[in-house]
Design brief:
mainly beta; four-stranded antiparallel sheet; globular
């Protein structure tokens, strides 16, 4: 089992994290109540941003078979977007404001291919993964004032920005015995390794003030989700031989997690970090899960056919292989306080959306499928991107393209 889990984590770092999305127009003079906005990739592959008044701005208009845009990632400030442009001669990371100004290139290379972008919380820097002869992690200022700085190489590679944007928490190399965790200081560029043995998990996380890290620690064949600070370790789960996928709530007061083995995965568990209160929701075996921005709900992505296997392994593989034969998925919205679950309409997932699912814990740090007011979810389906109201189930098609993400 452990060999299989580590293989999963290795694949999670090697398989492309790339996906294509797009952006459009929003008004410069924001109203008192911020409009929900969605970045979409249209059918041609160009980038648009669509707001809740159906106003849109196209930021790219030259997408083709030789010019492609991928990894469109909104900044936390809701004012900028970063994306990757692929051409036969060069690969660039570009940053663009939502005011109609031209994009600026912050990274350019022919041999090194970026495939995942992650803004710092202060929206001033970008961390990104790139593949060449090895997998490498870089940080670059979003204003393009400095060249990209290489943090380290190694695969798989997962990481989290510290809340004050001063450092990156790294989990590199997978689980025990080769995996490790470390912290990289953006200012000094120092890399400091932690002593604990990394368990079977993917993306690490910080607590709200950056004084503690949340990781999975291994003791032989046993894994346990832990909060670790200068005072020591606090267990956030029961010990298990299974691996973990986990995501912290927006206020970082709770952690939602799922355990998985070779042919099983658990229901969702939610732990309140300060009190140790634990909640178990066993009705669904989600392929992925995402907290709402207000922290009141968790969106569980569930396969209608309920394929077996962990997220990122047999579950995702089965859904991916059968999408051409009508396999469906759906969102189930869990109210954390009441425990009530509301099932939304099924849809056939698009290819770019499926690419996210094996690494959803990492993607949950850099993008969301929830609207900024926590009232809508996005269905990235084979027939376009649809916005669905979580209470009424009312749908609106935003584009016939393949992928969309919400803007903070």
């Amino acid at each position: 089992m452990r060999r299989r889990i580590r293989w999963l984590l290795l694949i999670g770092g090697v398989v492309g994290l790339g996906l294509a999305v797009g952006i459009g127009w929003w008004q410069r003079d924001q109203p008192a109540v911020k409009l929900n906005r969605t970045l979409v990739q249209d059918q041609a592959g160009n980038i648009q941003l669509i707001d809740s008044h159906n106003q849109s701005l196209t930021l790219t208009n030259d997408a083709s078979s030789i010019v492609q845009y991928i990894q469109v990632t909104p900044a936390p400030d809701g004012q900028h977007v970063a994306y990757i442009q692929l051409t036969p001669t060069v690969i660039e990371i570009r940053v663009q404001a939502f005011d109609g100004s031209p994009a600026r290139t912050v990274f350019s290379d022919f041999n090194l291919r970026p495939f995942y972008l992650y803004w710092s919380p202060n929206s001033q820097m970008l961390a990104f993964l790139a593949s060449g002869t090895t997998m490498e992690l870089y940080v670059v200022p979003a204003d393009g004032s400095e060249v990209a700085h290489k943090v380290r190489d190694g695969q798989p590679s997962y990481f989290a920005w510290k809340p004050d944007s001063s450092a990156l928490l790294l989990h590199t190399g997978g689980g025990t015995p080769v995996g490790n965790t470390a912290v990289h200081s953006v200012q000094s560029k120092d890399l400091t390794f932690f002593k604990e043995t990394a368990g079977d998990f993917q993306a690490p996380a910080w607590n709200a003030d950056g004084s503690a890290r949340v990781v999975v620690v291994a003791d032989g064949e046993i894994n346990q989700l832990m909060k670790i600070d200068q005072a020591g370790q606090q267990a956030l789960s029961e010990p298990t031989s299974d691996g973990f996928m986990f995501v912290l709530s927006p206020d970082r007061a709770k952690v939602a997690y799922q355990t998985f083995g070779l042919q099983t995965r658990s229901g969702l568990m939610i732990q309140t970090i300060a009190t140790g209160k634990s909640q178990s929701f066993e009705t669904a075996r989600p392929l992925a899960f995402f907290w709402s921005p207000d922290g009141h709900s968790v969106a569980l992505l569930v396969a209608d056919a309920r394929p077996r296997g962990p997220s990122g392994d047999a579950g995702i593989i089965k859904v991916s292989r059968q999408t051409q034969t009508g396999v469906q998925v759906h969102w189930e919205v869990l109210n954390v306080e009441s425990g009530q679950v509301k099932r939304l309409k099924s849809f056939a997932p698009s290819g770019p959306f499926l690419n996210v699912l094996p690494y959803f814990d990492q993607y949950a740090a850099s993008l969301t499928f929830w609207s900024s007011d926590s009232q809508y979810l996005l269905n990235n389906s084979s027939d376009g991107v649809w916005q669905i109201h979580v209470e009424t189930g009312a749908e609106q098609q935003l584009t016939t393209g393949a992928f969309g993400v919400a803007v903070p």
